[in-house]
Specification:
The complex is a heterodimer of chains A (596) and B (289). Chain A has 596 residues and is an alpha/beta fold. Chain A is built from 12 helices and 33 strands. Classes of the chains: A alpha/beta (596), B alpha/beta (289).
Chain lengths: 596, 289
């Protein structure tokens, strides 16, 4: 037997005031009688007939102290150890993130956890209701409040290893939520990580493996003359020196092998590839270590593409300068409103043509009339500017002044800047076209003189033409991919490494793609009226969160598998204590009624 | 205003009654009460032969004429009874809403009236300055005022025990009536001693209703009015039951002791009216006839 909150025994000090109050209350009322002759005999009788009669005099005090004692014990959360779980409701939370794939004695930590869970379920009683949750970066509720043991065991056995990192904050809040709804639910948590959660309410089954682990934590490239340079970052989480081979594949063909001698810590390896026609790179360590999936990393090589931008303006030098300094921009200028198609981005400064182009994204500056994308509202003069925290206004901290600004009305566009509480800069995607509208002239404001102006134009450019550059970034397993399609796209599909095809458009705007549970190369295929375009992007594991946990575990212990919980489990009996307190309270009431 | 011990209408009701004693008294002055002794009253009893030494004045000369033998003519001697009334005027008796001592005084007063009306002699014993005092034997109705005066002057400023004081007493054979609450360790010795003195004893035990059935509640400290001794009691059902058990035992022991010595025991609650006490309790016990 033990207590989860023994500090609360301090409440036993309340015995003192209770006894003092009792003694103060115990003052006898003096009554004169003719003779105590008979009463003295009565008192003697009571003392002789009842051995505990002296105790009986203070029975109410004793009962009050007993009630108080039981209440204090109830507060200290008493428990006893039992090898037979007797819970009514059990929440099984299983971490199936990548780190649980670590091997220990030829079994993954997840398999060990599953075996323990099955054992636990088998020896529990038949009334126990199980809820099973797995968590990686996503939380999955596999079964809820089932007392069918065999069904629960089958579900436990079918838990798959995820390649994703875990989401500790969410699982902690979910466990908290369960415990708040029903404090009697027993939470059994199976993980290899440390959780910042009050472990008094949960039974933590902690697993770890001391087998060595090496991971490719980063794979990046840079275009150089006559080819590309790739930088492979390898991290050895073990203290021992490890000799291994690094295999480099390009488009599924091995193109290089590098012999490595890896010390503890990070090793960077720069590899020069003299080919300009490489689409994908795969780096793989030829080693048998604890986690298999972090020994390989994928990289897609994006083609350098120049974006054609057309500026339709009657000599707005500020805009022209800001646009011309952007990377990969091929800037065209015209004052004519009669324009041809074929540009990736159009910038209208002031006057607008009758028919707007539909093959590129559009920036409107001080539009002269309403369009199908927005309506113009009332004109405002001088006022307060309020900048919203949006992607477009990222890193723009300083305020600016606007002399005259026109309200931009559109329920489909997000508001980025308000002028006298009326939207003056809006952005968003309507059907296939991305649109940014600035409702004032650059010349009616001091914005062009501010440091933030080129940043704003750069943000607008990134927002309007981010479709390809997005894939240069590092996408991790289970992350959602928000693909920005070109305005000319008719349909778009994504195929994963298992060649499962998912259509993300139509309808437009396109759906976010979230079937990213596999590592490897994904292919986005956009179909246009006159052809199609394929873009490859790679999805990798999160080594930062998942591969280095062994380093922490090594410092804790040297055994292969550590489980913090024993076969014995803590069984709370505070409810019994509470019932006893209530029972004694009732007895006390009965004694009181009887006495009076 | 002080309560009157008796009123005239009650006294009128008593005119047809007199004290009834099962004892036929042998000693005492001439009175209205028939005795076993042969005496000089007008009521004929028997004849017997003359033996030397007899009072020759009682020789029946008509019988001598007929039988030529000397016979004595015997008559029943009528003697007066000697009634000793003991009133326990300790502090324990001076208690209760219906004061026990007052009720006892009323009873003494009425019994004295009956005694005096029946040409018997009454002596009222009471405590004064912790010693037993008496009114002296009084006879005749004209002495009733003296009894009233004695009773009026009786107070409860006494710490002694009436039974202990009785044991110091030497009285002649007669009728004794003791009015007390019997809260005394010497109650049995007192009864025994009066029996030894050949007294036709009637013990009238006067108790207050709180002594018969206590109604206290909660935590109480009971203080004895006589010796100020204190008893802490947590009143409960068990305590009340135990008291009742002790009370019954207390009463039964006194009754049994009285029976054992051929005495009467009459239990009276001070709540009862004096008429009820007189005509019901004392009447049924055979004190009045």
């Amino acid at each position: 037997m033990g207590f989860l909150s023994p500090i609360l025994f301090i409440f036993l000090l309340s015995f003192i005031p209770v006894i003092i109050l009792y003694l103060l209350k115990k003052e006898h009322k003096e009554i004169e009688i003719s003779s105590t002759f008979l009463w003295e005999k009565v008192i003697k009788d009571l003392e002789v007939n009842k051995p505990f009669s002296r105790l009986n005099k203070h029975i109410l005090l004793l009962l009050q102290l007993l009630v108080l004692l039981f209440l204090v014990i109830f507060l200290t959360k008493p428990y006893f150890m039992t090898d037979e779980p007797l819970y009514n409701e059990v929440l099984i939370v299983v971490d199936n993130s990548l780190s649980m794939s670590k091997q220990s004695e030829n079994k993954s930590l997840l398999d060990l956890a599953k075996e323990d869970i099955v054992k636990q379920i088998k020896k529990s009683n038949n009334q126990t209701k199980y809820t099973v949750i797995t968590y990686n970066s996503k939380i999955s509720n596999l079964i809820q409040l089932s007392s069918n043991k065999s069904e629960v065991i089958n579900i436990i056995k079918d838990i798959n290893q995820s390649l994703s990192h875990d989401n500790q904050n969410r699982v902690e809040s979910i466990i908290d939520g369960f415990l708040q709804v029903d404090s009697e639910v027993q939470v059994l948590l199976y993980t290899d990580k440390e959780l910042e959660i009050d472990s008094s309410d949960i039974m933590l089954n902690h697993y770890s493996s001391t087998e060595k682990n090496i991971a490719i934590s980063s794979l990046v490239y840079v275009n150089v003359e006559n080819g590309i340079d790739i930088l492979v970052t390898i991290e050895n989480y073990d203290n021992e020196l490890v000799n291994t081979d690094l295999l480099i594949y390009s488009d599924n063909k091995m193109i290089d092998v590098v012999k490595l001698s890896l010390k503890n810590g990070i090793t960077n390896e720069l590899i020069k590839l003299n080919s300009s026609d490489i689409k994908t790179i795969t780096a793989k360590l030829d080693i048998d270590d604890s986690i298999e999936f972090d020994n390989i990393r994928y990289l897609s090589i994006q083609k350098q593409k120049l974006n054609k931008v057309l500026l339709i303006s009657s000599g707005n030098l500020y805009l022209e300068k800001a646009l011309s300094i952007l990377d990969n921009v091929e800037l065209y200028k015209t004052e004519e409103l009669t324009i041809e198609s074929g540009y990736d981005m159009y910038v209208f400064d002031g006057e607008l043509p009758e028919i707007l182009p539909s093959d590129g994204n559009i920036l409107f500056v001080n539009p002269s009339k309403s369009t199908k994308y927005f309506d113009l509202g009332e004109l405002n003069s001088y006022g307060n500017i309020k900048i919203n925290n949006t992607e477009l206004m990222n890193s723009i901290n300083e305020n600016f002044i606007v002399e005259n600004g026109i309200e931009i009305k559109s329920e489909y566009l997000n508001t980025d800047v308000l002028f006298n509480d009326k939207p003056i800069i809006k952005s968003g995607k309507i059907e296939k076209v991305k649109v940014v509208v600035i409702g004032f002239s650059i010349f009616d404001s001091d914005i062009a003189l501010k440091i933030g102006f080129p940043v704003l134009i750069s943000n607008i450019y990134d927002f309007l033409l981010s479709n390809h550059s997005y894939f240069n970034s590092n996408i991790l397993v289970n992350e959602t991919v928000d693909v920005s399609l070109l305005p000319t796209t008719i349909s778009a599909d994504i195929s994963n490494p298992k060649l499962e095809i998912t259509t993300i458009a139509p309808p437009f705007p396109s759906d976010k793609y979230d079937n990213t549970s596999e590592v490897g190369f994904y292919v986005l295929e956009q179909k246009y009226e006159n052809g199609f375009e394929k873009t490859v992007f790679a999805i990798n594991v999160n080594t930062q969160k998942e591969s280095n946990s062994i380093k922490m575990d090594n410092s804790i212990n040297n055994v292969n598998v550590v489980k913090e919980s024993s076969e014995y489990v803590k069984k709370s009996f505070k409810i019994i204590i509470l019932l006893l307190a209530l029972l004694i309270l009732m007895i006390e009431w009965g004694v009181f009624r009887n006495d009076s | 205003m002080e309560k009157k011990l008796v009123n005239s209408s009650l006294l009128r009701k008593l005119d047809g009654l007199k004290l009834n004693s099962k004892m036929i008294l042998h000693l005492g002055a001439t009175g209205d009460r028939k005795s076993k002794s042969k005496g000089s009253s007008v009521e004929f009893s028997d004849f017997r032969e003359y033996v030397p030494g007899d009072d020759f004045r009682k020789i029946d000369w008509n019988a001598y004429m007929r039988f030529e033998k000397l016979f004595l003519k015997l008559f029943v001697e009528e003697r007066e009874a000697r009634i000793n009334i003991f009133i326990d005027n300790t502090k324990s008796m001076d208690y209760g809403v219906n004061n026990k001592l007052f009720v006892a005084k009323q009873i003494v007063c009425l019994l004295s009236y009956l005694t005096l009306s029946g040409m018997d002699r009454v002596n009222v014993y009471y405590l004064e300055n912790n010693t037993l005092k008496s009114s002296g034997f009084l006879t005749g109705k004209n002495n009733f005022n003296k009894i009233i005066n004695v009773l009026d002057n009786i107070n409860s400023d006494n710490d002694c025990d009436i039974f202990q004081e009785i044991k110091k007493l030497e009285i002649k054979k007669g009728i004794s009536i003791v009015l007390t609450d019997c809260f005394s360790e010497y109650r049995f010795e007192g009864i025994k001693y009066l029996n030894y003195l050949k007294q036709d004893l009637t013990l009238i035990q006067v108790l207050d209703k709180t002594e018969i059935s206590p109604t206290f509640t909660g935590e109480v400290k009971l203080v004895d009015v006589e010796d100020s001794s204190k008893v802490d009691v947590s009143m409960s059902k068990a305590v009340i039951e135990s008291y009742f058990h002790r009370y019954l035992e207390f009463i039964t022991e006194i009754k049994d002791t009285c029976n054992k010595y051929g005495s009467r025991h009459i239990l009276i609650s001070s709540e009862c009216s004096i008429e009820n006490i007189l005509f019901d309790k004392l009447g049924r016990a055979g004190i009045l006839g």
